[in-house]
Amino acid sequence: MKSIANTDGRDEILGRIARLTHESKGLWGKMNVNQMVCHCADQVRICIGTKPARQKGNFLTRTLIKFAALNLPIAMPKNMRTIYELDPGKAGMTQPSGFREDRDELVGLIGHFFSLPGGQRFSHPVFGGLSKRELGKLTYLHLNHHLQQFGV
Length: 152
Known about the structure:
Radius of gyration: 14 Å
Mean pLDDT: 95
Strand order of the largest sheet: 1-2
Largest sheet: 2 strands, antiparallel
Structural class: mainly alpha
Distance between the termini: 19 Å
Order of helices and strands: HHHHEEH
Low-confidence stretches: none
Number of helices: 5
Shape: globular
């Protein structure tokens, strides 16, 4: 499974982010491209611990669903509800400012995550504790889902 914790996965995602423009249109969902970029940046912020998020997980999400997400070739469902802190319709998500600045911020956050030590542990609001390898996989899946949403 691909991951932003390794060079190939990171470079692929960064190349696709670079192809986004302020005019990119979603193929599904309600977010515009700038909201999507901020949504994805906030997901990285939450996982690396620079943005707080309420814990929403339970035994099932921290075990079976986490295992499936990390190990089975299952695509993220379209139009899935998200947590308050990532919802563009709620005050909990970082609101867009300028497309280029927001896109550059997402790129910087991915670079920051990539540079973190391999043994570092992270806390996910739904899946609980994650290794860098696990978080790299989940973040790749999330970014891939939204980049596909915008046709890149």
